[in-house]
Amino acid sequence: MRNAARRGAGTNLHIVADSENIFSKNFAKKARNVTQKLFNEWNDTVLVYRRFEVDKKLWPQPLELQQLQSALKENRSNYFHALIYGRGHLIPNVWGWMNFSLENEIVVADSIKYVNGAWEPQFIMRSTDPYHYEDIITRHYDHQVLVNELCRAGYKFRVLSHVYNIHSGIKQKYSDYEVVMMHLAKLQAVKYDEIATSYRTNLVRCHRTASYHRTTACGDFIVPLR
Q1: At what angle do helices 65-73 and 94-103 cross, to 10 degrees?
Q2: Are strands 156-168 and 45-54 parallel, antiparallel or unpaired?
Q3: How is residue 76 annotated by DSSP?
Q4: Which residues, 6+ apart, have CB-to-CB distance to 2 below 8 Å?
Q5: Which Pfam families has this protein been placed in (predicted)?
Q6: Where are the beta strands (DSSP E) in the chain?
Q7: What's the alpha-carbon Rg for the chain, to the nearest Å?
Q8: Which parts of the chain have pLDDT scores under 50?
Q9: In angstroms, rounded to a whole number, what is the distance separating the alpha carbons of residues 209 and 31?
Q10: What is the pLDDT of residue 67?
Q11: Fewest CB within a 10 Å sphere: which of 61, 70, 173, 213?
């Protein structure tokens, strides 16, 4: 599904996102000066944006920084899936990010290290960058696999200031359907787990002509237990 959307896009930039999420006000306009650096300064880089969940009853939904700040302070918002799968979505230093964004006008993108094998941030990337591994069910480990593979390919992760998106509603548990799908996805993700262990010695699966770097910075991809 994710790859089909990217193949059909006619732009040089792709934003990896879930369709039900809502982007902060003027997201594209604010981020434009940074996104252009993907073509002339930052080779093999993706631009990560923060994601938040918000109480459905909160109105208006916080699409501006001041509103989001208030929602966080009132415990009516937290980072995406914090209650059910925090390690997969944690981006450290949210209050430092918030304070900088409120006090400065220009959007910047600070480097962040790959967090862990469960990490699945969403981001802006170039159309020529790697696509998702298609042998895993969409939304169940497929994005973790891509993020791990980007790390192994030598990509850098940079977190955008000022901009973010939100999901209306704070998720507290998985549905029965999601539990079943996660079980199936784990079986499929094991295949990638076997592939990933070979990165240390030879090129196994490459979207591009360049060889993957041998690196210990990404760790071994381990099928995460939720």
Answers
A1: 150
A2: parallel
A3: S
A4: 16, 131, 132, 138, 142, 143
A5: Glyco_transf_49
A6: 13-15, 22-23, 45-54, 77-79, 109-112, 123-126, 156-168
A7: 18
A8: 197-211, 224-226
A9: 30
A10: 98
A11: 173
* Secondary structure tally for the chain: helices H, strands E: 8, 7
SS3 state at 164: strand
Number of C-beta neighbours around residue 170 at 10 A: 19
Strands 77-79 and 123-126: unpaired
Query: What Cα–Cα distance (Å) separates residue 94 from each residue in 64, 143, 160?
Result: 15, 22, 12
3-state secondary structure of 45: strand
Q: What pLDDT does residue 84 have?
A: 83
Residue 201 CA to residue 47 CA, distance in Å, equals 29
Residue 43 Ramachandran class (φ > 0 left, ψ -120 to 50 alpha, else beta): beta
- CB half-sphere exposure, 112, CA atoms < 13 A: 26
Q: How many other β-carbons are positioned within 10 Å of the β-carbon of residue 214?
A: 11
Rounded to an integer, what distance in angstroms lies between the CA atom of residue 80 and that of residue 78?
Answer: 6
Q: Which of 63, 90, 194, 85 is nearest to 139 (CA)?
A: 85
Q: pLDDT at position 186, please? A: 64
> Phi then psi for 54, rounded to 5 degrees?
-135, 140
Tokens of 94: 């949210």
Structure tokens at 6: 């990217």
Distance CA(212)–CA(178), nearest Å, equals 33
- The residues, any chain, with a CB within 8 Å of residue 32's CB and separated by 6 or more, are none
Paired strand residues for 48: 123, 159
